[in-house]
Every structure is written in structure tokens, then in C-alpha cells.
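Researcher: Here's my situation. A collaborator sent me these components and asked whether they could plausibly form a single complex. I don't have experimental data yet, so a predicted model of the whole assembly would be a useful starting point for our discussion.
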Amino acid sequence: MKWKLFAAAGGVIVLFAAMVWFAFNRGPLAPVAVEMAAAQEADIASSVFGIGTVEARRSYAIGPIQAGRVLKVHVDHGDTVNAGQLLAEIDPVDLLERLKGAESMLDRTRNAVAVAEAQEREARSRHTVASANAARYRDLVQKNFVSREAAEVRASEASVTQAAVDGAQAALLAARGDVERAARDRDALRRQLANLRLTSPVDGVVVARDSEPGTTVVAGQAVVRVVDPRSLWVRARIDQSRAAALTIGLTAEIVLRSNQGEVLRGRVARVEIESDSVTEERIVAIAFAGTPPLSVGELAEVTIHRTRSTRGLVVPSAAVKRVNQQHGVWRVVDGRTRFHPVKIGVQTLDGMTEVLDGLKAGDRVIAYSSAQLREGMEVRIGKVS
Amino acid sequence: MINLASRDIAHGFGRYFLTSVGLGLLIGVTLSMAGIYRGMVDDAKALLESWQADVWVVQQHTLGPFAESSNLHDDVYRNLLGLPGVAETGNVTFLTMQVKQGESDVRVMISGFEPGRPGEPALLMAGRPLTRPHYEAIADVKTGFGLGDRIRIRRNEYTVVGLTRRMVSSSGDPMVFIPLKDAQQTQFLKDNEAIRNDRNRLAANPGLNRAGVPGLLDAVEANQFSNRNVNAVLVRVTPGWNPRVVADNIKRWKYLQAYTGEEMEEILVGKLIATAARQIAVFLVILALVSAAIVALIIYTMTISKIKEIAVLKLIGTRNTTIAGMILQEALGLGLIGFVIGKLLATLWGPHFPRHVVLLTEDAVRGFIVTVVICTIASVLGIRAALRVDPAAAIGG
């Protein structure tokens, strides 16, 4: 009987001990587990990340300058076109007839010039005869062979024919002016006709055929859109808080959404002066180093490497906390937590933060913890689970 | 003087111990129930503590963002920063959704935040904070995701770069933190079919798709398919300022609702989990009654089974108090062993509950006192039966 009693008592004691052990190691009384990391010297590569879309730096929306109906579209999506190539035509409606009219008008004015020339010649020959007569009569009057009156009649005839010559010459000039004007009218109509033929301003690729024959388009509406494929770049949006010191020429990596395995090389080609004030982002354009992929509007992830990497003291970014508007790290002093303010520099994309002041190499800081840390908390250094 | 109770227990130790284990299981369940309630309160507090927001700014006339829905423009923070006493602000969004995890899916609360601003999960147990403004996530360890896993949320994939713990919503869904801009898109961006459908509807509207105004339709679409809303703005006040004053200032001048940290805790604990708490309270009462009934029945049957021995004890002149003491001690012993086993079991199986279970020491003490009281009351039935035994029964049979 005695051993049973001892067994019973022993069992109860073991159970009780287990309960107490659990309470202090697993329960609410257990100290917070923390994982430490050491501050160390490392290469710091400062880079920024953003997303953007592939866009064409030079994109051409080709359409008529006034409303009209599309007559023909000669190219389709994906066609390579040369500068000056005919892409589409707008229905000229009555322009051809008006051009014919203008041409016959020109012919008519030319004929009018011929008439005016003939009239001028006639007037001149009359005048030649009249002035010869007048001269003869002037001599004859001095020798008193004819009456003074007859000589005056001849002189008057000469000045009348002179006036007729002047009139004929003016008429000829006017007729020539008419020819000039009719020619200009015809040229203007030709220009208008030429304008209805939509040609490509550059060597490029047709990315959209927006209107089909028969469609009525307004002035400025695109019939065909052409881009210069060599001018494709990524317009990326970089959060303003990380957009410091971005300059033209920095190297960048581009990952397209359609090909996430491949990293394309690029270079910052433009840092736009105007930010997007609503989304608080800076817009940066990155040109492809190689041949750009022909996929306009595709989403792309961009990593811009800001400068050459520098050596510096780093701690894991997870260790850097903000307490009372102050950056700092938690350290363990005599088994208890202590907040330690530090001055931080750049944060790298792989999660390391540069410490400018406040720590030295080898200093150990709390990287991870199993509960929210407070000043003077008792902690147990080990694996956080 | 020999102790009758210990002798009796040692005599039938196996049966007694098994009975204690049974009672222990029941007490374990009771303690766990209390732990679940404490866990819910603790989760709410842990969530708020992690954000360390002094003031929560939400839509006017709402109890948002948890108890009611709340929408604010995401540039409201600029107005708030201009107010005296406001030191830091952070936009946050919340959205509960199912995300795929391998073959199955897991229910999570997606929270959008701006790295470096209030709203960031303060505690990391592995990995690193977000360093890219897009497509990275910090997941609560309860989601089951590990470092490097990819989470698909709507149309984008997010890489898990950090793990946190104790970040669960009031309904127990673990949280996944993603950058604010992604979260805004996730929250308000429709699926592709719906977008195409809407586009077609817009294009079919002759008022918006006008032949003479080529850019109008695009402008309307761009306006419809963008989102600049957040659910709440977290505010940290300048040291020395009373959050109450700052909150009142915001309420009065900005036509927004503002709650201090304590008020938000009151909303989370007092309103969101109030029903669950009452449910658990009723359950606890029922469990206590059941435990009492079981202890009473066990003590009673134990007493009845040794009626003959009690009669003999009476015959040889044992006092009634001694007999009553024996039964009471047995009942208390049952309660004590049961309680220890129950506490142990609750501690052991606590971490395996899907929700956080907190076993408070004061709950254990309270539970112990209740166990003792219940055992004492339950033993009354047995004691009564023992005292009514006729000593003559020992020989009469």
C-alpha cells in the first residue's frame, strides 16, 4: 500500500512541476525571445525600384487636318514603313473637279494674255504710223507747205495712239497677272489634294490602324499610328521619398512583365522635372541598352543603380526601429532591452541599412523578436519561433 | 491519526486517477475557452500596439476602419500634417480576401501601408522590411507563407520578404502587408472582365463617346479606373501633446472622424468581439455546471460504493466529521489533480488552436478557486449519503 501512496504523491508533484515549468517557459511569463545580428562593414549599393510602362518617345498619330472620309488605308498593324510612304488617303470629294476647273481657268487666262499682246502690237504699229506722220507735218509747217492746223491734227493723232499703246500694255500686264493668280489657285488645290494623302513622317512601325475606309474622321483624329521602334523606353514612376540623386546616365535593370526571367540593361535617359503631385512620384525614363522589345504599354519593373557601391557599416533593416520620431536599434544590456538611437543612411534593396553614427563594427543589435519590445524588457537570446 | 482519504485513494488509485484525468480534460477545455476570449482581446491589443497610432482618422460618422467601412482620400494626410501636434501620418487600407496557397486557399486580411510611416508592422521575426515600393509583402506567420514564397493577390504576385507574428484581424484572419499603392489597386481594381465590360458600356454611351471629341472616352475611363482612396490615416502626435486634443481638433476642423488609440481599442474589444465574448461567457457557465455535476456524481458513486466500509467506521466509533472530512478531501484531491492536468493540457494544446490562446495566470487562479468551490459543493451530496448510513448496515448487510 505504501508505494502506491508514494506513487500518487510523486505523480501529483511531477504534474505540478510540469505546470510551473510550462507557465514560465511557454506561457505569458516566458521572456521574449530575440534574435541578434551584428553590425558589419559591407558594400552598400544604393538603388531604387519603380514600375513603369514601355512607351515610345516618338509616337505619331497620323490623321487629316480637316474633317473627311477615309478613302483607302494602305498599311496594317505591324507594317514597317519608310519616311514619306503613303499610309492612307482621304476622299477628295470635289477637289479633283475643282482642280480641272482651275486648270481650264489657267488656259483661259493664258489665251487672254495672247489677245492682249496682239492688241498691244496693233496699238504700237498705229502709233508708229501716227508719230511718223506728225514728225513729217512738223517739218512741212516750218517750210510753210501745209497749214498749221493740219500739223496739229497729226500731232493729236500721235498722242491718241500713244495713249492706246499705254492702255494695251496695262491690259497685257493685267492678263499676265490673271495667269499668275490662276496658276496659284491651281497649285493650292494640288496642295490640298496632296494633303489628303497621309504619309509617314519617319521610318517606323504601324502600331494601330484606328480608322477603316468609309469612316468619317474629324480634324486631328488618327487614322494610323506609327512609332519609331528605336525610340521605345520605359517611363518609370519612382516614389518621391526615394527619388533623390537620380541623374541622366545611371545604369538600370529592366524586367518586363512578359519575360520576368530576363533582366534587360538600360540607362536613365530623362529625369522629368515635373513630378506627379497626386501620386507623389517622380517620372524617370529609361532607355534600353539593346534593341527594345516591340511591346508598347507593357508593365516593366525598373531598378536604377544610383552610384558605385561604397563601403559602410550596415545592420539588417529589420533591426532599425522608430521610437518617438527617432531612428534607433534595440540592444541587449544585462539581459534587458535598451533602445539605442542611431543615425541611418541609405537602405539597400536587399534589406540592409547603413549606419552613419551610433554603432561600431561587431556591435550586436536585436534583429527579430517574438513580441513588441519595450525599454528594460527581459529577453532570451535564441531562435524566434 | 491516519489520513482516511489518502488511504482510500491509494486503495483505488487507478480508478481515482482516471477520474481525475477525465475531470482534467473538462477543466482544460474550460481554461482554453477563457484563453480564447483573452486571446481575442490580446490580438486586438497587439494589433493596435504594433501600429502605435495615437489617433485614428476615418471617414466622418463611421466607426471605421474595422467595425465599419471607411473611405478617405489619400491626400487627406497633407491637411492633417499641417495641424498642430501631428508628427507623423500614415495611410492604411484593409481588405479581407482569400489568397491561394498551393492547392488550397487561406483567408487573410490585406493591409496596405507606406514603408517608413505609421501602419508598418513593427515586429519582424524573420526577413526584412519592404524596400521596394511594389510587389513585396510581409506576412503573418499564421498565414503559412514562408520567406521567398510568392503570393498571388488579384493580378499581381508578391514576394514574401518578411514574417511578422500576432498580426490578425478581429475575426482572426492573419494579415499580409503590401505597399499602399498596390493595396489601393487591389482593393478597388476590378477583374479584367469587369473592366472590359465597363469600357464597352462607356463606349456605348453616346454622351461620353462623341465623334467630335476624340479624347473624351479615354479621359472618362482613366477617371473611372483609378483609385485614390484609403481606409484610415494613422497619426502619431508630437511628444507632449495629448492625443485627445489632436483628435478633437481633427474632428472639429477637418470634418473627419478621429479616435484616440484607447477609443479604437474600445471599438475593437467592446464592439467587434462583444458578441463572441458573451457567447464564451455562457459557454463557461455551462461548463462549470457540467463540471460540478460530474464531480458530484463521481463523489456520490464513490461514497455509495464504500457504504459498507463507512458503516464499519461508524460502528467502531469514528466521528462524523472525520468521515465527512475524508469525502471532502477526496473531492478536493480530485479537483486539484484535475486542475493541474487541465492547466497542463490547456498549455500544451493552446498553440495548436487556429486563433491565439492566452492563458492568463489570474484566469488560472480564478479557475482554481472555482474548482475548489465546485468540488466542495459537489461533495455535499456524498457527505449527506455517508452520514445517513446506519452503523447497523455493517453487520446486517
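Model: Some features of this prediction you could bring to your collaborator: Residues 13-51 of chain B form the longest helix (39 residues). DSSP finds 13 helices and twelve strands in chain B.
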